[in-house]
Model the fold of this input.
Amino acid sequence: MTHTTPTRIAVIGGTGPQGRGLAYRLARAGHSIVLGSRDAARADDAAAQLRQQLAAAEITGAATVVGAFHHLSAPLLLDPEADLSHEDVLVCGDDHAAKELVMGLAVDVTGGRAVDAGRLRLARQLEPLTAVLISVNKRYKTRSGVAITGLTQAPQERVHA
Done:
């Protein structure tokens, strides 16, 4: 179920597992996807693979930047049976309209909550958190995620700090 108007979205790093997983979930939610890569042939190959996985999805090989999705498990993003609704997506950005759009996309991707985590400069703090989650996942052989406690908004809402 789409919580935002279907949009054309560029996924930077779209040939890696995280980028392919986000592209898959966003296309499944009805958005048109452009995969970005340093290698155009890899982007075309990844787009072809995703088109096969998603019949009828539009995916092709100076932007406003919003940081989000760092801490979602790439294998779960690519798993059509995976329920991500228990995961919160932390969203960082300086442009209010762009951040609102990405928060809506986060709800589309997970079915859970999007949490406004502040300015774009804080996105660099989310990268090390990802490394911690990967370590926890390896140690406990699981797919851990992030859920912020103490917020009053229900799942499938946008939470503003």
